[in-house]
Amino acid sequence: MGNPTLRQVAIPYPVDEIGSPAFQTLIQDMQDTLHAYGGIGLAAPQMGVSYQVIVIEIGNTSTRYGELDQVSFSVFVNPTVSVADETTAGYWEGCLSLPGFMGYVDRPQHIQVNCLDEKGNTLSVEYEGFLSTVFQHEFDHLMGKLYIDRMKDLTQFSFDEEYQKFHADSS
Ligand code: ZN
User: Where are the domains of the chain?
Assistant: First the structure.
């Protein structure tokens, strides 16, 4: 947090370079970073790379967000998001760009994502519930936004440790 790249709107990844060695290196770096920090999602601007690329992977299902369903490593290039149902729900979110903090954010719980996958094929997928929140969190990174921008109540902004102690069971 504080790096200007995180506050810029990222540029679309050049479609004819999807699958190139530079692309493969970026994706590998993102996966390595996700694993190294135990995250579940990462956007390229968090690596200092201002491109519209997101990765999501939930391999270890026991996370700081509680028990989650497994999601295999997925790559999303140049995504667009449309809200399928405006009904919102809140979750405590963490972010590798704000290490040590968690914050409670309300977001729509049913979205439609259109993008390209790591092979450049069109991908259309719907997310509901927590995964809808995860994807919107990552998509916000491509738009220069952080989850703290979405918070309505800063009394629900917490250190990780205090989140585990006081909030994890009540959310
Ligand atoms: Zn984040």
Answer: 4-170
Query: 169: which residues sit within 8 A by CB, 6+ positions away?
Result: none
0.90 surpassed by pTM: yes
What is the distance in A from the centroid of ligand 1 to the CA of 158? 15
Q: Which residues sit opposite 131 in a β-bridge? A: none
Q: Which residues are within 5 Å of ligand 1 (an ion), measured at CB? A: 95
Query: What's the gap in Å between 78 CA and the centre of ligand 1?
Result: 17
Q: What fold does the segment set 4-170 form as a domain?
A: Peptide Deformylase (3.90.45)
Catalytic residue flag (residue 126):
no
Q: Residue 144 is encoded by which pair of tokens?
A: 């220069």
Express each pLDDT in 14-50 by its tens digit.
999 999 999 999 999 999 999 999 899 999 999 999 9
